C-alpha cells in the first residue's frame, strides 16, 4: 500500500478520540444548561429554585437525547433530501454496497438531495444508524469512479465516528443559540425592575459576555476541527477504494463548478463533502490542498 | 487509602487484559467475516451465469465454444471446496466471461437485449464487490498480524496463544490507476 510512505493515520485512535470528544461535548452541553437553570432561578426568584432546576435538567436531558437519536433525520430534513429509490438509483446503491464491503461498515441509508451542486454529506450517531446523502448534481455530473471516491470519503466520516462528533457540535451550537437567546431576552425583562441587587448585575454581565462570545468561539472551534477531518476522510476514502484519481477527479470538477447553493443552512455546512458556500472558504480545506495531498498517496 | 489504590490498579490491569482479549476476538472475527463475504459474492456470481447462458444461446447459438468455457468455469466454481479454490475458479470464469462479452459485440440484438445488459451489469458489480471483499480480507489480516507482532499486543498474543494468521492466496489485485494519455 502506497499510503505507508506518507503520513500514517491511526484509524482506531481517531474513533476513540471522536467518541471521547462526543462524550465531553455532551457533558458540557448538559452542565451549561443546568447552570443556566441555576442562574435563572437566582436571577428571577430563588423561591422556585427546585422547580426551575428540575425543569432545567429535564429540558437538557430531553434536548440531548432527542438530538442524539434524531441527528440523521434532522440533517436530512434540513436540506430537504429524500430517500433514494433502490431501482432508480442502482449505481448509487451498488457503489455504496461495494464500499461497505471494502470498509466492513454496515449499509447506511441513502438519500438524495435536490441541488445542482456536486456535494454529499453523512450523518447519524454511529455506523449502524448512518445516512449518506448526495446531491442530484453529483449523481449527474460525476462519473462512476469519481462518485465512488466521494461516497468513500463520506463513509470515511462514518467509520471514524466523525458523524457522531459533528452531531454533538451541532447540538452545542444549538444550545449556545438557546442560551444567548434567553439571556438577551432576560435583559428586556429586567428593564422594569429597579430593585436589582449587585448579584443580579453580575449575572447580567456574565450573561451578556456569554451571549456575545460563545457563538463566535464555537464557530471557530468548529472550523478548526472540520478541516482536519476532511483530510482524514480523504485518506480513508483512498484506503477503501485504493484509487485516489477518483476522488481527485471529483474535487477538480467541484473546483470548476459555479453553482451557488441557497438551500443549505450554515449550521450543516461542515457536514458536507465540499463547502457549499464557495465565497467564504472556511469549514473545508482548500480544494487544491486536498488534491495535492491525494496526489501524493 | 493504600487499599483503594491497589484495588484501582488491579481493576485497571484486569481491564487491559480484557480489552486485548476482545481486540483479538474482534479482529479475528473480522477476518472470518470478510472471508465469508467473498464466498457470498462468489455464489451470487455463480447464480447469475445460467441465466446469462440462456440469454446468449437465444441470440448466438453457434458460439458453442465460448458458451462451453463459461459453463465449465462455473461448474468448477460451484464445485470448489474452499474459498481459495473458488477465487481461482472465479478468475477463470472472469476471463471466460470476457470472451462472451466480446462475442456479444458481433450480435447487435443480443447487445441490445435488456436482460443481457442487466446480467452484464450485475456480473460487473459482483466482480467489483469480490475485489473489495478481497481487499478487506487483506486489510483484516494485516491489522490482526500487526496486533500480534507489535508491543504490547505481542505480549498478549503469547499469553492468549494467538498466532499470526497466514494470508490465503487470494490477496487483492492492486487496482492500478488508469493512465490517460493525451497525444
Kindly describe this structure:
The complex is a heterodimer of chains A (297) and B (183). With 297 residues, chain A is mainly α. Chain A is 66% helix and 5% strand. Chain A has helices spanning 11-44, 49-79, 90-103, 136-141, 144-159, 162-190, 198-241, 244-256, 287-296, and strands at residues 82-83, 109-113, 120-123, 131-135. Chain B has a single domain, classed as de novo design (two linked rop proteins). Helix content of chain B is 79%, strand content 0%. Chain A binds chain B through residues 90, 94, 97-99, 101-104, 239, 242-245, and chain B through 30, 33-34, 37, 41, 121, 125, 128-129, 132-133, 135-136, 139-140, 174-175, 177-178.
Largest chain-chain contact? A-B, 14 and 19 residues
CATH superfamily of chain B: LemA-like domain
- Oligomer description: heterodimer
The termini of chain A sit apart by: 9 Å
**Biggest β-sheet of chain A: count, sense, barrel?**
4 strands, mixed
Give the fraction of residues assigned to helices of chain B. over 70%
CATH architecture of chain B: Up-down Bundle
Distance between the termini of chain B: 79 Å
What string gives the helices and strands of chain B in order?
Answer: HHHHHH
Count, helices of chain A? 9
Largest sheet of chain B: none
User: Low-confidence stretches of chain B at least 5 residues in length (pLDDT < 50)?
Assistant: 174-183
**Rg of chain A, alpha carbons:** 22 Å
Q: How does the helix and strand content of chain B classify structurally?
A: mainly alpha
Please give the domain count of chain A: 1
Strand content of chain A: 5-15%
**CATH-assigned fold name of chain B:** de novo design (two linked rop proteins)
CATH class of chain B: Mainly Alpha
Amino acid at each position: 500500500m502506497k499510503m505507508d510512505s506518507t503520513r500514517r493515520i491511526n484509524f482506531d485512535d481517531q474513533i476513540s478520540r471522536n467518541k471521547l470528544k462526543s462524550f465531553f461535548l455532551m457533558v458540557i452541553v448538559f452542565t451549561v444548561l443546568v447552570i443556566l437553570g441555576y442562574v435563572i432561578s437566582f436571577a428571577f426568584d430563588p423561591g422556585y429554585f427546585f422547580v426551575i432546576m428540575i425543569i432545567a435538567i429535564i429540558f437538557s436531558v430531553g434536548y440531548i437525547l432527542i438530538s442524539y437519536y434524531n441527528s440523521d433525520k434532522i440533517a436530512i430534513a434540513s436540506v430537504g433530501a429524500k430517500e433514494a429509490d433502490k431501482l432508480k438509483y442502482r449505481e448509487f446503491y451498488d457503489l455504496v454496497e461495494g464500499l461497505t464491503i471494502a470498509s466492513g461498515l454496515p449499509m447506511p441509508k441513502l438519500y438524495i438531495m435536490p441541488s445542482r451542486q456536486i456535494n454529499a454529506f453523512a450523518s447519524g450517531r454511529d455506523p449502524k444508524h448512518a445516512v449518506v446523502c448526495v446531491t442530484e448534481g453529483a449523481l449527474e455530473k460525476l462519473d462512476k469512479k469519481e462518485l465512488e471516491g466521494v461516497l468513500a470519503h463520506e463513509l470515511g466520516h462514518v467509520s471514524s465516528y466523525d458523524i457522531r462528533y459533528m452531531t454533538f457540535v451541532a447540538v452545542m451550537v444549538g444550545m449556545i443559540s438557546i442560551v444567548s437567546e434567553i439571556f438577551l431576552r432576560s435583559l428586556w425583562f429586567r428593564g422594569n425592575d429597579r430593585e436589582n441587587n449587585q448579584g443580579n448585575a453580575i449575572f447580567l454581565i456574565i450573561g451578556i459576555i456569554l451571549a456575545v462570545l460563545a457563538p463566535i468561539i464555537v464557530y471557530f472551534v468548529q472550523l478548526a476541527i472540520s478541516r482536519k477531518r476532511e483530510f482524514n476522510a480523504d485518506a480513508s476514502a483512498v484506503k477503501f477504494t485504493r484509487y485516489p484519481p477518483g476522488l481527485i477527479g471529483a474535487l477538480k470538477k467541484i473546483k470548476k463548478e459555479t453553482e451557488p447553493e441557497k438551500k443549505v443552512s450554515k449550521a450543516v455546512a461542515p457536514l458536507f463533502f465540499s463547502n457549499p458556500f464557495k465565497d467564504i472558504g472556511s469549514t473545508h480545506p482548500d480544494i487544491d490542498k486536498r488534491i495535492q495531498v491525494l496526489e501524493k498517496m | 487509602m493504600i487499599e483503594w489504590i491497589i484495588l484501582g490498579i488491579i481493576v485497571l490491569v484486569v481491564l487491559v487484559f480484557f480489552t486485548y482479549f476482545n481486540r483479538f476476538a474482534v479482529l479475528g472475527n473480522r477476518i472470518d467475516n470478510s472471508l465469508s463475504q467473498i464466498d457470498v459474492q462468489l455464489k451470487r456470481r455463480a447464480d447469475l451465469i445460467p441465466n446469462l447462458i440462456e440469454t446468449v444461446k437465444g441470440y448466438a447459438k453457434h458460439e458453442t465454444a465460448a458458451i462451453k468455457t463459461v459453463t465449465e468455469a462455473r461448474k468448477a466454481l460451484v464445485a470448489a471446496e474452499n474459498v481459495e479454490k473458488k477465487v481461482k475458479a472465479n478468475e477463470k470464469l472472469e476471463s471466460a466471461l470476457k470472451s462472451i462479452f466480446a462475442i456479444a459485440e458481433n450480435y447487435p440484438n443480443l447487445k441490445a437485449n435488456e436482460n443481457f445488459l442487466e446480467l452484464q451489469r450485475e456480473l460487473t458489480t459482483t466482480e467489483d464487490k469480490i475485489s473489495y471483499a478481497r481487499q478487506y480480507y487483506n486489510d483484516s489480516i494485516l491489522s490482526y498480524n500487526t496486533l500480534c507482532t507489535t508491543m504490547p499486543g505481542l505480549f498478549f498474543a503469547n499469553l492468549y496463544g494467538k498466532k499470526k494468521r497466514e494470508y490465503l492466496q487470494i490477496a487483492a489485485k492492486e487496482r492500478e490507476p488508469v493512465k490517460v494519455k493525451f497525444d
